[in-house]
Design brief:
It is built from twelve helices and 13 strands. It folds into two domains: about 5-10 and about 270-384, Aspartate Aminotransferase, domain 1; about 15-270, Type I PLP-dependent aspartate aminotransferase-like (Major domain) (Aspartate Aminotransferase, domain 2, 3-Layer(aba) Sandwich). Strand 3, helix 4 and strand 4 form a beta-alpha-beta unit. Strands 2-8-7-6-5-3-4 form a seven-stranded mixed sheet, with helices on both faces. Strands 9-10-13-12 form a four-stranded antiparallel sheet. Helix 8 crosses helix 9, helix 9 runs parallel beside helix 12 and helix 10 packs across helix 12 (about 365-384). The model has no long low-confidence stretch (mean pLDDT about 95). The chain is α/β, with parallel strands linked by helices and about 375 residues long. The chain binds pyridoxal-5'-phosphate. Pyridoxal-5'-phosphate (PLP) binds near residues 175 and 177. Pyridoxal-5'-phosphate binds near residues 98 and 198.
Length: about 375
């Protein structure tokens, strides 16, 4: 028996069309997109453009050239943060955010470029909007927040925070790694200036894909981060200033983007609502079962409609890394243990420094997986 419950790290398996399209790209297209006028290079261009359109529609955005590809969301957030921030800016993020946001911001702070406030979240992993308002300063210019916790799934009140940012002229950047492909995301309803995404989690694409959507307002503020060949304006040694080329130097991961396109097509075919409904149902059943196991602490909100299906626990009887190891080696259940690259989140929920055992439910899990895992946990914990 093999049960994969590490979908918060990366989804597995992928829809068959994802594997097939990647093989097809490598075996039958091959060429670099945007480099020359060969039939195969143009076929590559079409794949990339179709994926840009798919992402634009998926996030209810309206400018296809403002959809930029990067290798992952970590690169996207580094670009958005480091190419935007200016000396003297005050920047806000939260304790629930991932190191992909915290580390670039912290390094700018340590270099004396920015002042940084990291808003402490509640035990449920939520930002209090009043705390956010009280943290604002006259020089607050940028807010970077994750849409949900990658540890306990709590969904942040981003629409309210976004509208405050908009009213005050503060740039707002969202990390959608834990929610894209799970929750409906509307670029304009969230009132953001940029939305970063990663392809290999719930968008169901392969590793090595990601990117961001950026509005013209923030784009005007951003400088190019990585410069080099774009296949455009090649007679000049000056980096193009138009999108997406400004941010897309170097060869794109075309087979990966072909796979990502099929991941998004799969979500659209299934319906985002039905994926969310299934994950919410499994999450509800899993949490109910966990709450019945004595010695297990479940962190975060218990109402599955207010969170994603990423669930963290600890047992008072056995260390989380040992429990994760036994689940894997004796029951074939893949989970993740530790700090999940979000150290400050564990300070908020009270699990620092040992972290948690995390279960990430995905679109290919079913109720049998949940019941099998609950039985395994019950058995292991009864024995220790
Ligand atoms: C909230 C959040 N942000 C950023 C990342 C980084 O994603 P990637 O490794 O694809 O860049 C992750 C991955 O775990 C995440 O959960």
């Amino acid at each position: 028996m093999k049960i994969y419950l590490d979908n918060a790290a990366t989804t597995f398996p992928k829809p068959p069309a994802v594997y097939n399209s990647m093989m097809n790209y490598m075996m039958n297209i091959g060429s670099n997109p945007g480099r020359g006028v060969s039939t195969t290079s143009l076929a590559g261009n079409r794949v990339i453009l179709n994926c840009r359109y798919a992402l634009m529609d998926f996030f209810h955005f309206d400018k296809v050239e403002n959809v930029v590809f990067t290798p992952n969301i970590t690169t996207s957030l580094n670009i958005l943060i480091k190419s935007t921030c200016q000396k003297g800016w005050h920047v806000i993020t939260s304790s629930m955010d991932h190191n992909a946001t915290l580390r670039p911001l912290n390094s700018l702070c340590e270099k004396g470029v920015i002042e940084l406030d990291i808003i402490p979240c509640s035990k449920e992993g939520l930002i209090n909007v009043d705390d956010f308002v009280n943290t604002l300063k006259p020089n607050t210019k940028l807010v970077v927040l994750s849409h949900a916790s990658n540890i306990i799934g709590s969904i942040q009140p981003l629409e309210s925070i976004g509208s405050i940012c908009k009213e005050k002229g503060i740039y707002f950047v969202i990390d959608t790694a834990p929610t894209a492909g799970i929750l409906p995301i509307d670029f304009y309803k969230l009132n953001c200036n940029a939305l970063a995404f990663t392809g290999h989690k719930s968008l169901l694409g392969p590793q090595g894909t990601g990117g961001f959507l950026i509005d013209d307002n923030l784009n005007e503020r951003c400088t190019a981060f990585i410069e080099g060949g774009t296949g455009s304006l090649s007679s000049s040694i000056v980096q193009p200033d138009f999108l997406p080329d400004k941010f897309e130097s170097g060869t794109l991961n075309a087979p990966g983007i072909a796979g990502l396109l099929e991941g998004i097509n799969f979500i659209n075919d299934q319906g985002l609502d039905s994926i969310r409904e299934s994950e919410e149902y499994l999450c509800k059943n899993f949490i109910e079962g966990l709450l019945n196991i004595s010695s297990v602490n479940v962190y975060g909100l218990t109402d599955s409609s207010k969170r994603t299906a990423t669930i963290s626990v600890n047992s008072t009887k056995i260390d989380n890394s040992e429990l994760g190891f036994i689940l894997d080696s004796e029951y074939g259940i893949t989970t993740r243990t530790g700090l999940h690259c979000a150290p400050l989140a564990h300070k908020s929920i009270g699990t620092y420094p040992s972290g948690t055992l995390r279960f990430g439910i995905g679109p290919f899990n079913d109720i049998k997986d949940i019941n099998y895992t609950l039985n395994a946990l019950n058995t292991i914990i009864r024995k220790v």
